[in-house]
Amino acid sequence: EHAENWKRSDAYFNSFLLKEDPILDATLQNSRNQGLDNIAVSAAQGKLLHLLAKSMQAKRIVEVGLLGGYSTIWLARALPDDGKLITFEIDSHSVKVAGENLNNAGLADKVEIVLGPAAEELPKLKADEPFDLIFIDADKPSNPIYFKEAKRLVRKGGVIIVDNVVRRGKVADPQYQDDPNLQGVRDLVHLIKDDPEVEATTIATVGEKGYDGFLYAVRQ
Ligand code: DHB
Ligand code: MG
């Protein structure tokens, strides 16, 4: 797999395409210091999310899975002054750490954090003011539930992105049968196959976080 090779590859492109970013560096440092898992999106992926949100002039974003707020910062920075991002997180320690990181990034007023299981909290969110973009990056077994809620909340023409759908190819490998994380992705794509209300594709990625990918869906 040559992890060093892909790390160098990300570093190479980032050195041209990404600016130095003390706030994002501090976010990762603070998250690491306080024991959060190092499973945030990569910088290159974070910037992709940022640019997608910008391209569609997103004003309202939902995120499922806050962790330390790294992708949250990339996404919220794409919002206009009156924009809003609502993010869901089950772990109170993550909420504390992310709160610090979002304050440090000057984004606390644009980001609303909901503490609790997203499968219970998302249904409480009203769809009368729909969302432009929804990023799902939480526990993988619940992907089908989160996607169903995301469909309810996103506007027509809006976008739903799901992280970690490739998993080093394991999702598509029938030798891995009993992993509920992999099954959560498989169940999701089965669901989408029969759903005339979304069009979707995957964007497989490789870089400092190894081989993985996003699912990109547009609400019809
Ligand atoms: C895991 C979860 C993630 O959201 C991710 O981006 C990478 C790994 C995990 O649970 O292992
Ligand atoms: Mg992820």
Automatic annotation (TrEMBL):
GO biological process, one term: methylation
Domain of life: Eukaryota
A GO molecular function held by the record: S-adenosylmethionine-dependent methyltransferase activity
Alphabetically ordered keywords of this record: Methyltransferase, S-adenosyl-L-methionine, Transferase
Keyword presence, Zinc: no
Family affiliation: Belongs to the class I-like SAM-binding methyltransferase superfamily. Cation-dependent O-methyltransferase family.
Name the record gives this protein: O-methyltransferase domain-containing protein
